Amino acid sequence: MGRWTLHLSVGLGLLLILMTFSYTEANYCFDTRSKTCSDCLQAGTGCAYCPEETFNGPRCDLYENILAQGCSAATVITAKSGMKIERKQQIDIRRAQSQVSPQQMSMSFLPGEEKTVDVEVFAPTKGPLDLYILMDFSNSMEDDLDNLKRMGQELASLVKKLSDDYTIGFGKFVDKVIEPQTDMRPEKLAQPWPRSDPPFSFENVIKLTKDLNFFTDELQKERISGNLDAPEGGFDAILQAAVCGDSIGWREHSTHLLVFSTESAFHYEADGANVLSGILPRNDEQCHLDADGRYTMDTAQDYPSIPTLVRLLGKHNIIPVFAVTNHSYTYYKKLQTYFPIAEVGLLQEDSSNILQVMEIAFKSIRSKMSIRAEDRPKAFEAQFLSTAGKVAEYGAFDFKPGAIGKFKMRLKAQRMIDDSPVCKMDVDEKEGVMRIKPTTFSSAVNVNARVLCPTCDCEKTAIRNAPRCHGNGDLVCGKCQCHDGWLSTFCNCSASASALDTRLCIGPGSTEPCSGRGDCLECGTCVCYKPDQFEGPYCQYDRTQCQRFGGFLCNDRGSCIMGRCVCSEGWEGNACECPKSNQTCLDSNGGVCNGRGKCVCGLCECPQSGFEMSSTCEPNFQATTLGVCEATRSCAQCQAWKTGERKDKEECDKCSFRVKMVDELKEADKVLHKCSFRDEEDDCTYHYTVENSKLSTSKDLEVEVLKKKDCPAASLLWLLPLLLFLLLLLALLLLCCWKYCACCKTCCQSCLALLPCCRKGRMVGFKEDEYLLRHSLLTSDHLDTPMVRTGPLKGTDVVRWKVTDNVHRSPNHPQALIKPNPKETIQYPISLRLNRRFSENLSRPDSRDAEQLRKEAADNLNEVYKQIPGAQKMQKTSFRTQKNAGKRQDYTIMDTMLSAPRSSYPEIVKLTERNVQSGHFHDLKVLPGYYTVATDREATGAIEFQEGVESLDVHVPLFTKEEDDDKKQLLVEATDVPLGIARIGKRLVNITIIKEHASSIFSFLQPAYTYSRQDGVANIPIGREIIDDGRTQVSYRTRDLTAKDKKDYVTVDGDLSYGPGETQKTVPVRLLELGEKDALLDDKQVKQFVMDLSNPRQGAKLGRYPRTTITIADPPEPSAIMFKRGTQNFTTSDPTYSIPVVRTRSQDGPATVKWRTKKGQRVDLSGNLKFNPGETEKNIVIDPRNHPALGQPDTFQLELLEPSSNAIVGERKTTVVNVIEGGPRSPEMSQMQQKGYVSPKNTFHGGRLLAPGNPKAKATGPRSIRLNWDPPAGNPMGYKVKYWIYGDPEKDAQVLDVKSPHAELTNLYPYCDYEMRVSAYNALGDGNDTDVIACQTLEDVPGEPGRLAFNVISPTVTQVSWAEPAETNGNITAYEVIYTPIDDDLKQIGAAKKVKIDNPKKRMLLIENLVNAQTYQYKVRAKNSVGWGPYRDATINLASQPARPLSIPIIPDVPIVDAEAGDEYDSYLMYSNEVLKSPAGSKTPSVSGDDYMMNGKWDQNFLFPGGSATRNLSTSSSPMSSLNSNYRGGSFTTETTTNYMSGSPHLGGISGMPTSDVIMRKRSERGYGEENIRDSIVMGDLSNKFPDIGVYGFIGSQSTSQSQFGYSRSQGPRARTQSSEVNEALYNLERVLQDARLSPGVPDTPSRLVFSALGPTALKVSWQEPHCEKDILGYTVMYQPLNGGEMKRINVTNPAENSVIIQDLLPNHSYLFKVKAQSQEGWGPEREGVITIESAVDPRSPLSPMPGSPFTLSTPSAPGPLVFTALSPDSLQLSWEKPRKPNGDILGYVVTCEQLHGGGDTRSFQVSGDSAETRLTVPNLTENIPYKFKVQAQTTQGFGPEREGIITIESQDGGALSQYSNQSMTRREVFNMPTDISNISRTMINDPFFSDGMMSTTQLTESSGMITRQVTKEVVQRSVMGGTTVTKKMFYDS
């Protein structure tokens, strides 16, 4: 009982403690409560330890928590860090050098602690500058050197301009003087080029000097040198210039600028290690300059690496400026990103602009100031903040030269690094001296930082066998450490004595040990099953069962601990729903709830008042429709004047405020509102102001009333009759004078002229005072506001006006207080009147006139407005006229849009006025007197009254926006009349816009629709939601996407009118059939267009879907419906006959088919069968009881007919039904029915059970599935569960026999799809199966990765790669690589480095700076959503492995790590895909992103699982394939059944071809598609299996062993059919030749060899099956580099496979390929071919292609790639380069052109000449038709191989030239050529049957899945036995 009480007290105490604290994050102190005192203090900053013996709480916690738990403050053990500024000299701005303050600091940090220090920096206006020019002296830089020599004076002026204290120096470099970099022949070593110096690596020519004359003189003495290869050895020179400070002359406090000038790429580490020069050791990073300044170790050590240069230049404060030409600019731009600060400038080809490049670079460097922390230990993080406390981005510090700049340095010591406490790290990783400095400074703040790892003194004075611990343990720092065998807090529980007593684990109110949620261990200790969910001494608390708020556990503001919510800091409540802060209750005066209410749970509870309250209990007049004045009127009137509707005292006392009578009111802009009302009782007007109280203690409004009313004067009504009488009398007298007295008449006219109304003059002003508009009725964003002119209308008046938005808002309005950002770019609508008459064409935006005027206006206005900073180009230009404008109304008004910063508005207005007055904008003529310039909140402009014009409209913008107030006002003002004599009368007009709630909402019913072309019409419904019924309208319009108007559909636009009650209307859009041309092009692009709603009227708005996308689907392939089996067998005792019918293809929609009997003897049956969407099988059920004739044995047929329009009848359209005599029912069956085991109603008439019902499957784990079902009627004896992997045949299923209606499937594969069926059985056998049930098992941790592979670059650099785990068990999300130095006993001897790779496609890592000759253990593991899998490890010593002969590139998308560098290195050397990306203009994507590619190369593990190259058996492209897709275990499997038909009548018009079926399975993510083929070369002849072809062409090839012959026969489009005698004679000749060279049964040479480029390192090799009298057993493909190397072999054991994919080739290397076939009689002769894949490579490594760069196949004797340039829609220019190694002298070229898909004649062109590049213009082409061009060189030895190109001139994009069936501009080139090994002569044939005098043959090739004709022109001369020569010409002659 005592133990139970002890557990209860401890549990309740812990609960009480946890409820009193809150945690904003995980309490790392509390996590170490059970550890030692030292562990507690080292856990992190703020941790404290209580050593008191009687303390019962957690001993380690935050300091404030420890005190709150009752620990004495005097005994608490804590640790403190320190900070000391050791040297701080104030910045002296008089010193012309960079300075920082403070200069030296010492700081100690507790783990997790951060400190902030203020730092001052100073950069002088012209500080000291050291400028060192390092120039490439290879021969190609000769003109650059000459230009630099001539620039001596300009260079002197530049350095003086950059600095008053400067030095300048000069160095030169070429490359290592070894092979292959340098020509080592003695004569070339003496003088590599005429008038040049011997080659060298680097030489310091001129040390940094102040003497510019000396510099210029010495520079004149220099001469150029030279080397062999293009990349230069500049990295050697840069390193020596950095580390040889004394020799170069760098000064300590100056800015060090190194200008690196070259036109070539660079060598770097491992490029020096090659077979010609020997293996060079790694660069030692030391200075090696002799007395003459020459680098002496160039041939003794390797080039430096990029990380080395970055580190050393940063260490010596040297800023590189790469001044390079266009040839290498992109390489150095990528290199720039590795440096923390560097610049790249583009040089002219002769470096004539090098001084401008240097000046621009220097200014750019000074403007990109950023702060760095150099030599930072790994345990520290550094951040740099602006003075405002915001973290600054790179280059964000704008320190002005000559002024002191300030920033904040924040340093933080990490608590954990790689899941390990920081105090467990090595000393050098947690302490060191950091240098904090701006990137351009040499001065720095030196911070000596270390992580403090405190220890407790009390641990050294432990009390052994302490009484507190019952003698069974030691008392250490107040805590018992028990001896072995003793447990509990005070070591008073024996582990052995209480091991079996589970009663100690039963808590109060529970009957089970540990509440049934854990295991009971010794001494009543409960270990919960799920510690993340259950907790407490007895596991009695569930962490998911605390109170929730808003659906979130503890409001997501706390943690559920011990059954209660423990809230985070600042939150409280049972569910942490209440903030402790009252910030959400503060009113506008800073008070709480305006003093009127209480702040409860973060919300104000306000009392009742006479008007609406805001959420902070402030009067909310905006919530009422009355406003401030109306809401306060009655109370102000009753209190001030005792009048009004509240004049009764009882009503007046209810007012919530009291007025104050004053003599003078405050100004209107200083109060909330100023109000004036007329008192009805005395007709006087009273005035008062309303404002919120400025006292936080006051809760009332402050209302001040003016004591004096404004009353009208005293009544003089009695005078009115008298005045009227006198006026009438005066009028009568004047009339008499006018009639009878001429003198009086003249006098009256003079007097009238003196009156203002009669004066001779004009007045202008607005016609109306106010306009009231409804937002819902607006049809335009402008209002034409009339302005009128009175008086004499002769002459012209120009009136300027302006408009201001939201004038109804007071200055204190919340929106008025929000000031716009002046730097924000906004749109300025601008209107001008052009000096051009308006025409009808200008009203059509797409007309030619409008387009020309739009371009002219944009060009001229851009030229004018470019002086506005930040202004962009004009856009959205349209044209209109101005009505009633007199002589100007026929002139064009242009509306356009200018984008510029908001602050530019005054400048834009002034600039516009000035140009309008001048009459032109640049060259664009305008008419003065009219313009408009507007923003989004104000506008100004001018209008012109021409002579005779009385009224004009001012085009006033309304500034309508969604965020407008419900009632807003605009004020339009006529400001002045700059031209004319008119005066302004009615100056102002108010425009009020009232925003109403929508009366209707228009929307499409869904965002997308799909229609088939067969539908003909797409009916698009538009719905209307009625809020306020009535009439309304909306506009609609279609717009092209990929579907084109008048090609795919007919565009529509218009208005829909809805009457009362109408909610939906439909817009029909006509769909067009696919054109004949489109069908020919086989365009599979998805066709889409959109329909938009706009301009809702009569109070309507647009709703959820204002736009819908319509997809035009091509007619789907019809479903195929057929009988499942050809024969059905039944007995006369069967109750029913069920005949299954299946449906394949296009199963998404319904389908129907009719059925009927055929050839039935006694019965005539028929019916309909309907398939619902998704159904694949239905049964025709025939009940013989309804047809007595079926009760006897019979045989009849059923047939399917009349399918629905979306279906066809398949190949099994009939089935035979056999009905035989059935036997009697068995005695066992009868007995079971009598006992009730089998119900006749629920079984078939054979006793078969029905299928179990409602089967359900659920995955219960990675390797288990639980299956449940309902038993069928009939009392089954058991069940059989069949289950198999999805995609496997059902016949291979495993069967599980169970007795209950559920089953547990175990030992399954994780993350794998399974299919299942269940059937019941009884004594008569198995019942019916259920439908297939599908279920996927859960994910599990992945298996270990595939084998590790190492590509040894050098003894310190390796590239490690691995394969994906064989069992991914889910989707791989990351990999982790750990590499550790070990000794010979495999024990760790150094720190392990860990790298996490988040992209699962990047299964490769480049590791640099490993320790030389050190053995490392490498471990790799994979991760999926479940967690990390096991490691795959390998051990290797790089020094014992052979290195690659040339350098390894920085591989795209591969993480690079430096084994020596710290975090500072990682901060700028991130992933290399940030550097080597595809150029912006690249026409091909980067190969690194493809699933089957890795690091720019083809992944062998993708292509050959298991690493065996012989397993790669892929097929060539086939014209006829059917695909079935299966998904299994996370991978997509494609099964392809291919019919190889070389001559299908449907495809090529050639019949008689044998066909074969091949089944192929491949993972789609690991295979190649035809879209990957970029280039092809065809070698050899065609197949000889063409029985019905007329013209023959012999193509031969001579291998190294014996002569091989084949022949091809095809009929070209212009071929003449030969006579049968000629055919037979040719055939017999061929048989004679074959018999002469081969024994019977041995295969012939493969008749065609096709090379297709898949990538820069991957190739598809295909061949055509050779002739053989016996069956082909297989093939062998062999290949090796042409210059020697290992011969690799691929065996193809399947004779149906005729292609392989090879992915390990090197770019720009020639390879010899050999293919031969095998039969039972042996191997046949080889077909050979030499091929090269040409591509752009990384300049730093010629073995690695540039990502995204184009690649092509080549052979030396073929013309260069074909380049096409469109000249017009029907002509183009074709150009090509001369073959590099033609076979003989070139006489000219033959060019042929034909349509790719046939049709038209084949055209030939003869081109003479032997120039480096040849051009040919080809006219009379047809647009949108693909053409094939072939170019063949004619030499003195005959014709060479052909270069092919396929091109299309497309018309829709203005004549752009594009590849057929592709939108990009890539070329697809095909070469047809013999092998280079063959010695074949080709001659012209004068065939009488060909008009062009050449022989034509037609080859049937496969390209992108199509059959195309390839017309070649060649004649082959063949050698025959005995040296006789047989040619076709000779044969014809004979």
How is this structure best described in words?
With 1934 residues, the chain is mainly beta. Helices cover 13% and strands 36% of the residues. The chain has 27 helices and 119 strands. The strands form 33 sheets. Strands 41, 43, 44, 45, 46, 47, 48, 49, 51 and 53 form a ten-stranded mixed β-sheet that branches. Strands 93, 96, 97, 100, 109, 110, 112, 113, 114 and 115 form a ten-stranded mixed β-sheet that branches. Helix 9 packs parallel to helix 11 and helix 17 packs across helix 18. The longest helix has 22 residues. The protein is globular and about 150 Å long. The termini are far apart. 36% of the residues are buried. The N terminus and C terminus are likely disordered.
Could you provide a short overview of the structure?
The chain has 1934 residues and is mainly beta. Residues 1-25, 752-759, 1224-1246, 1443-1456, 1458-1576, 1579-1637 and 1852-1934 have low confidence and may be disordered.
Please name the defining characteristics of this protein.
single chain; 1934 residues; mainly beta; 10-stranded mixed beta sheet; globular; disordered C terminus
SSE layout:
Blueprint: H1 2-19, H2 28-31, H3 37-41, E1 47-49, E2 60-62, H4 63-68, E3 83-87, E4 99-101, E5 104-109, E6 114-122, E7 129-136, H5 142-150, H6 152-162, E8 166-173, H7 186-190, E9 202-209, H8 212-220, H9 234-243, H10 245-248, E10 255-262, H11 306-315, E11 318-324, H12 329-336, E12 343-346, H13 354-367, E13 371-374, E14 380-385, E15 404-413, E16 416-417, E17 420-421, H14 427-430, E18 431-438, E19 445-451, E20 473-476, E21 479-482, E22 486-487, E23 493-494, E24 518-520, E25 526-528, E26 534-535, E27 541-542, E28 548-549, E29 552-553, E30 558-561, E31 564-567, E32 571-572, E33 578-579, E34 598-600, E35 603-605, H15 627-641, H16 649-653, E36 659-662, E37 673-679, E38 684-692, E39 701-706, H17 719-740, H18 742-754, E40 763-766, E41 770-774, E42 782-790, E43 797-804, H19 814-817, E44 825-837, H20 848-865, E45 875-880, E46 891-901, H21 905-918, E47 920-921, E48 924-934, E49 938-945, E50 951-957, E51 967-979, E52 983-984, E53 988-994, E54 1000-1004, E55 1008-1012, E56 1017-1026, E57 1032-1040, E58 1053-1058, E59 1064-1070, ...
Parallel strand pairs: 5-19, 7-8, 7-10, 10-11, 11-12, 36-39, 40-52, 41-53, 54-61, 55-62, 63-70, 64-71, 84-87, 93-115
Antiparallel strand pairs: 1-2, 3-5, 4-6, 6-15, 8-9, 13-18, 14-15, 16-17, 18-19, 20-21, 22-23, 24-25, 26-27, 28-29, 30-31, 32-33, 34-35, 37-38, 38-39, 40-42, 42-50, 43-49, 43-51, 44-46, 44-48, 45-46, 47-48, 48-49, 51-53, 54-56, 56-59, 57-58, 57-60, 60-62, 63-65, 65-68, 66-67, 66-69, 69-71, 72-73, ...
Helix pairs in contact: 9-11, 17-18
